[in-house]
Each structure stands twice: as C-alpha cells, then as structure tokens.
Write a structure and sequence with these properties.
Low-confidence stretches: 596-618
Largest sheet: 4 strands, antiparallel
Distance between the termini: 30 Å
Strand order of the largest sheet: 4-5-7-6
Number of strands: 7
CATH architecture of one domain: Roll
C-alpha cells in the first residue's frame, strides 16, 4: 500500500469505528497499524494500537515492535518515554520476548540524551538488561558500558551494582574500554573513594581531561584541596591545555575551602583564556568572598564580571545581598532597580527579600511596604522570610493595615492569553495524574536563540507562583500539577498530542499572537513574519479564517508535520502593528517587520522556511 492509500485507509477505518454497525476486525486493525508504523506514522499507528487494547485484545508482537521503532524514529522530544512504555507493555502485557535488535535500539536511544536527562532512564536500562539476560541473548559490551555510565551519573552512586556489572563483563571476557574506566572514576569521585579512584586512574593510558577533573573532585571530597590543585597543575603540564570543566572544578574546590589568593589567581588565568563560560566560577568566587566577609573583594569581582559576562541573576543576587549586609542601601536600590528593568536579569523572591531586609533594617518602612506590595503582585508573599514578615506585620498593624493571607494561585486573564500563545507556538503539556486529571505545563527554550534566551526569564517571572524558585533560570522548567491546566490539555494536547482547538478563532487576541510569534515565530531576512504551528489542516484553516476576519491575509506552507503561516509584505507590517504593544521591549528590534535580519534569531530557522512563492492561501 502506498502512503496516500494508507492515509485514506486510516480515515475510512476511523469512520467505520464510529458506526454502530461496525464489528471490530483484529486482523484489519493489525495490518493497518503495521503499515502505518512502517511508514513512521507513529501517532496514527498508536491510535489503532490503543483501539486494539480498548477492545480487550493484545496487539501482535509485530505491532509492538513496529510501533516502538516508529517512536524511536521520530525527532519529537517526548517519544522516548512512549517507546519505553510500549516496550514495557510488550513484555508485561503481551508476554513477548523482543528481538535483540529492538533491545539494542531502545538502549542506544536511552544513552542518546544529555547526561542530565539520560540518568533518569537508569531503571529502564536495567530492565532491558534484565530482559536480555533472561532471554539468553548476547549482551554487547556497549550495554555494560552504557549501564555503568548511567550509574556513574546518578546523584547517589550504587558502587556495589557497578562492581557486579564489571565482574559480569570480566566473566564474559569483555575488556573494559577507556570510557568504562572513566565512568568508574566518575563514580569514585562522587563516592569519595580515593583508594578505588587511584587504582582506576592507574589503568588509564593518556587520560582525558575529564578524568583529571574527577580525580580533583575525589580529593576535594575528603578535604584535600591542595592535592586537587596539584592534579590540576599536572593536567596542564601533561595535556598542554586546560578544559573549561577543569577550571570550573578547581575554582569551585578552592572557593569552597577558602583558598582566597589561589582561587583569585586561577580565576585571572581562566579569564585570560578567552573562554565565554565564566559565570559558574564567578558565582563560586563571589560566594567565597561573601562567606569570608570580604565585601570589597566581592564588589571588585562583581565589577570584573560585568566587563566579561552577560547578565546573571545569581551573581546580581550575591552582590545585592552584600550591599544590604554592609548597609550600602543606596547602591542596593540602584542594583535592584537595574535588575527589575532588565528582563535578562529580573528579580526573584531572594532579590525581594534582600532589599526588603535592607529597608526594614534602615527604618525605610514606606519603601518596605512597596516591596511587600511588589512581592504580593508577583505572588512571592508566601516566600517572605519569617523574621521579615514579623517586622512587617508589626509595622503594618500600627497603621491598622491587615496583612492578607497568601491566596492560592489562579491563572489571571493575562496568563491565560500568554499560555494560549505559547501553546500555539509549541509548548507542551504533561499529564501527571490520570485519576485526578491533573496536568503540568512544560516550558522549554532553545538557548541558541536570542529571542528564547530573553523570553525565558520573562515567562519564568510571569508564571512564578506555579513554579519552583530558581536563581539561574534553566532552559526548561515545569509547573506544579494542577486541575487549572486540564482545560488546556483537553484543548491543545488531547491524547498527549498537539492539536488546534475548535474554538481557536475566539482566542486569537493581539497578546496571544504576540506570544505565539515570540515563542514559535520567525522573521525572514526580507522582513516577512512566519508562525509555526502543529495540528490538523482543518485546525490551520480555522486559524487562517480567524486571521482574515482581523484583515490579516496569510499563506500556509506545510513542512513535514509542521505548518508555517506566513505574513508577507504589507500583511507582515499590519501584523506587527497589531502585536507590537505586547512584544517585549528587548525583542522589538529583532522581531519587527521589514528591514534586514542580522541572523541572531538562531540557526534552526533556515531561509528555506520563508519560500512562500508556491504556498497556498487557505
């Protein structure tokens, strides 16, 4: 069956499923699911797979296998979780024994993530290993190496399990590679096991720079920073260069143990290396001076940081704390004001608590009340330090003003519009509790895009009461699970897949369009504006019709599973005038219609996306 024939067959199948006279045909469903899966149509294949389950039947082994491979072939971020879920059901529900290549493909995908996200798949990796063992299949050396690698990145390392895996490798005659030895060294450094670390180190020929870093860390764990420094210098002599990770580690160690002069000297050396990844070390250095009470050195370090690094909330907070601690309230006010006005920095509960402490200590009660009102506005009132709250309550009681109890969070009208725009731009919703129908919003930003690097701080501040507190705002963060998000899940992510709601024509306000543009849009070099969206063609048609009602003509082009809605020429200018009041000031030059593009939006949007010469106007 050709692709178009399969698509038509799927539509006919879904229509038949809705008819009262239709009797479910297991063989037909299996054949269609397998065809769609082989064409990597994992969403449609999954629909039929779920239909089979809902009919009380167990899908064929081939359907399980094909669906897992289809998921692994998709570039979407959440498919690995789904592939693992189907694999587990294949074993538990179907009682099947997957083929060797399926075990290996899934295991390889688990290791393909970054170290931070891969470490959460340890339990799944162990389950695959267990299935390989129980099935008597050949276990490749990469399976052992990958398992040890995953164990070495856990927050709490299970050295006994690592020893068992190494013994199993030895019994099978599998020689430990350099990567495995480095993983063992990493585990030893976390465990503070110097004896085992040195034994492992002795087996390394031409050790990589990361191995030196782990050796530095293991000595730091047992309180020997001088020994860590010796390892650092030996690395420089042996390798003839110094990695960024090595600089970060040695400055972290020296700062922790208050080796002031040595840490400052290494920091100067690090700055002169012309690297751009200095911020973690500046945080360690300023923290060291703060603990030591050397506030003048802290200030000089802050000034040096400003010359070579972009704005960072954690560093500004450390400096603000220092100014308040030393009673320099006027400079503290100026720094706090700068933080509030610069979206790349922003303020959080720590910043507000610091300046509030300064005002209360100096008797500036009127200004303290203004900060309190700001914290209430930003939903920070539940994070006010208890000692400060007691003084506030006393002062406000003298004025017969009642301090209100913190209110449970509720989405404001503005937050609802912002959320709608971001969801159209590609934001994800996670279902966390099937029985209570609780959902969470997962915000993810591409750090390589200048627009995203600025937007993430604004969004984090906008939804602060739904999030944990962060000094350094990560590139991705997730809200608490709440029933308030269920409506958006039903509209935008039914069945765990992106969808365009039927009522979208009612929700396309200028603010919604602005946040859609900032999060999932693109301006071409000729000044045209494109909006990216996933969903059905029918959903895109409803968006286009709603835009026409607003006198916005556009063209639509489909690339893979993504639609691009293009506003060209005068339509781009008209679109810009509509959304400009809601675009962040720092992004207006980057996003305004017309003019020349400097390429700062990021490499993932190639100019090929802007070719709308053959696009259809829906």
């Amino acid at each position: 069956m050709r692709i178009r024939e399969n698509e038509a067959a799927f539509r006919v199948y879904k229509w038949m499923m809705q008819q009262h006279w239709f009797r479910f045909d297991f063989a037909l469903a299996t054949k269609l699911a397998d065809y769609l899966g082989k064409e990597r149509k994992h969403l449609k294949c999954r629909e039929i797979f779920d239909d089979i389950i809902n009919q009380g039947r167990v899908p064929c082994e081939s359907t399980f296998h094909i669906l897992i491979i289809a998921y692994l072939s998709s570039p979407e971020p959440s498919v690995l979780d789904e592939a693992c879920s189907i694999y587990n059901r294949m074993v538990h529900l179907g009682g099947y024994k997957p083929r060797l290549n399926l075990h290996n493909s899934l295991f390889k995908a688990l290791l393909g993530k970054t170290q931070g996200s891969s470490k959460h798949f340890l339990k799944q990796a162990e389950f695959i290993y267990q299935n390989l063992n129980s099935s008597g299949l050949e276990i490749h050396r990469d399976i052992f190496g990958g398992l040890i690698w995953l164990h070495s990145y856990q927050d709490v390392v299970d050295m006994e399990r690592i020893d068992v895996l190494r013994a199993e490798m030895q019994s099978r005659g599998i020689k430990e590679s350099k990567e495995v030895i480095v993983s063992v060294l990493r585990a030893c450094s976390k465990d503070g096991n110097v004896e085992e670390a040195e034994k492992t180190w002795s087996r390394l020929v031409n050790p990589p720079s990361q191995a030196f870093v782990y050796r530095m860390e293991v000595y730091a764990k047992i309180g020997k920073p001088t020994k860590s420094f010796e390892v650092f210098r030996r690395m420089q002599e042996q390798l003839g260069s110094t990695s960024v990770a090595a600089y970060h580690k040695i400055i972290e160690v020296l700062s922790k143990y208050q080796k002031l002069d040595l840490a400052d000297s290494i920091m100067s050396e690090f700055i002169n290396s012309d690297t751009k990844q200095l911020i973690p070390s500046f945080i360690d250095l300023m923290g060291m001076y703060s603990v030591a009470g050397l506030h003048e050195k802290l200030e000089s370090t802050f000034l040096r940081y400003r010359e070579v690094c972009p704005p960072n909330l954690t560093i500004f907070n450390i400096y603000l704390d220092s100014l308040v601690h030393t009673g320099n309230l006027k400079p503290a006010e100026e720094i706090f004001k700068e933080m509030r006005s610069d979206v790349a920095i922003g303020v959080n509960s720590r910043s507000c608590n610091s300046i509030l402490r300064g005002y209360l200590t100096s008797g500036e009660y009127v200004k303290a009340e203004k900060i309190y009102n700001l914290m209430c506005q930003k939903k920070y009132e539940i994070e006010i330090e208890s000692s400060l709250m007691e003084r506030l309550v006393y002062f406000l009681s003298l004025r017969e003003k009642v301090v209100e109890e913190p209110i449970r969070p509720k989405l404001t009208p503005e937050q609802r519009e912002v959320l709608t725009g971001l969801l159209l731009g590609g934001l994800q919703i996670i279902r966390s509790d099937g029985k209570k129908r609780l959902h969470a919003i997962h915000f993810e930003f591409n750090e390589e895009l200048k627009v995203h690097s600025i937007l993430k701080g604004h969004i984090h501040d906008k939804f602060h009461e739904w999030l944990g507190s962060h000094d350094d705002i990560p590139s991705s963060f997730t809200t608490i699970s709440h029933s308030y998000f269920t409506f958006y899940a039903d509209q935008f992510w039914p069945d765990g897949h992106p969808c365009i709601p039927k009522l979208i024509h009612r929700w396309l306000s200028p603010r919604v369009l602005a946040y859609w543009y900032m999060y999932g849009g693109y301006r071409t070099s000729s000044g045209d504006i494109l909006l990216r969206v996933k969903g059905s063609p029918e959903g895109v048609v409803s968006i286009v019709k709603a835009l026409k009602v607003k006198s916005l003509d556009c063209r639509v082009k489909k690339r893979g599973r993504v639609f691009w809605i293009g506003f060209l020429g005068n339509n781009a200018t008209f679109f810009w005038k509509m959304v400009e009041p809601f675009i962040l000031d720092e992004l207006k030059e980057l996003l305004k219609a017309g003019g020349n593009l400097d390429g700062s939006l990021g490499p993932e949007f190639g100019e090929k996306n802007s070719d709308y010469s053959d696009a259809d106007t829906l």
